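Predict the assembly for these four chains.
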Amino acid sequence: MAVTGEERPGGGHRIVKPPSMVELAAASVRRMILGGTLLPGDRVIENRLTEELGISRPPLREALRMLEHEGLIRQSPHRGAVVTPLTLHDVYEIVTFRRELERMAVTLGIPVVEESRLDRCWEAVRRMEQAADRRDEAALSETNFDFHLAVVGLAGHQRLETAYRSLQLQMQLCMAFNRNARAQRRESAGANVLRHRRLLRVIENGDPDEVLAELEQHGDRTFLDDLPDTLDPGSAQAQRWLEAERAR
Amino acid sequence: MAVTGEERPGGGHRIVKPPSMVELAAASVRRMILGGTLLPGDRVIENRLTEELGISRPPLREALRMLEHEGLIRQSPHRGAVVTPLTLHDVYEIVTFRRELERMAVTLGIPVVEESRLDRCWEAVRRMEQAADRRDEAALSETNFDFHLAVVGLAGHQRLETAYRSLQLQMQLCMAFNRNARAQRRESAGANVLRHRRLLRVIENGDPDEVLAELEQHGDRTFLDDLPDTLDPGSAQAQRWLEAERAR
DNA sequence: CGTCTCTCTATTGTCGACAATAGTCCGCCC
DNA sequence: GGGCGGACTATTGTCGACAATAGAGAGACG
């Protein structure tokens, strides 16, 4: 798999700029990880990747730094990088943190003060619908991602949005991890789109609490039920949390 | 200023490992930024730094990536890096986000479940006291930093702690920015230490709400009052926020 | 006199090669 | 036979040089 320029063919915000090698490399490796080519715990060997991607090591190393800060890999000095090995504790951190960021975004961003931010959400839903029509699983996942990011973007809080993006990526990592163990989505793509439309209408309605309630439904409940038992707990704290969460 | 190995002489967690160039470089440049050698808006030119630090560009570039993700610099393709230019909107983001992360940490981490985490806090206070006795401003600031990080660490939430660290760094950037405009601390070092001791006792007490109340007092109120009027507002959202915040 | 274009330079982006380290495998000694 | 020490290899860390870009400045044209 060599690096290619067609990241987000439909709706990226980049116009004609030739992306740098490190962005390209980061995107490629990210896809490998989220797509399940590289699994949690796998070593990420620089030489192997430079060969596959056709670039040299320095930009690749920068790309790996980016992925590290996105939480997708971990690096230790002189020992190289590893796709973040997930324990239950990691899942705990990811889910709780992500939820909290969403809460904050809703609190800050609703009711919506700037029309253009809502447009971004609608645009995402629109592209999501197109993807659903095409039965394009990859695009559906991508636009789903964009939608949630756009919702968080309603807060007009760049740092919050960046952090959320990172968490969302790690959430996808969790799901890539689980892909082997279970049927991914029981829900039809159409229902999925509808659910997002409904969320967006609630958002337009302007009541933060309603939005939070809707998000509560939106989520990870089924994901948490399907966690494989083989998962390393990582901490008692996380185990207690999962139990409490499942009991709800 | 060449790179040196003596980062955190007192209490770093590294034992004998010779740190890599990129860590060293990141630490050096971080110091330049937080110490006010490089001011918000200043261009960060790679060649200049490689010369000053005595290292080559690839590791420096990795270091700059790190600093970018810490929020201390911004990079745009082919245009290089700039020390994050602060607008009021940035201050708004930093302060609100930081506060929210503290809130989350307190909610998750208190009452404290693991004794060792509290030890880390006490250790930080102890070192803070030593720094105060030595009238060592730099060490005081550093240990103050560590203390807050340790408090957030009570949550046992790695990702939260990392995010908080980043926000705390950006907070220091704000303060470095303001250093020129006003007298920094009106409070004696001793009172400062005492305030932290009190906070820690409230923490041991185990009531999250009490801790939050204490943190509320702890903070940025005076900082917000002293913001220079020359600061670019950045957004109406931020201006409204500052007004509301000052009215409290 | 202003503006537009073209060159020219400062700076960033990328590369291939060299140095240093950690983990491994083999032989050796007990 | 098992544990220990030492070379070897795979991999990461670092470097200097080359390529490509963006911005600034000088010159020509309207």
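Chain A touches chain B at residues 17, 19-20, 58, 61-62, 65-66, 69, 71, 77, 93-94, 96-97, 100, 104, 108, 113, 156-160, 163, 167, 235, 237 (CB under 8 Å). Confidence is low (pLDDT under 50) at residues 4-15 of chain A.
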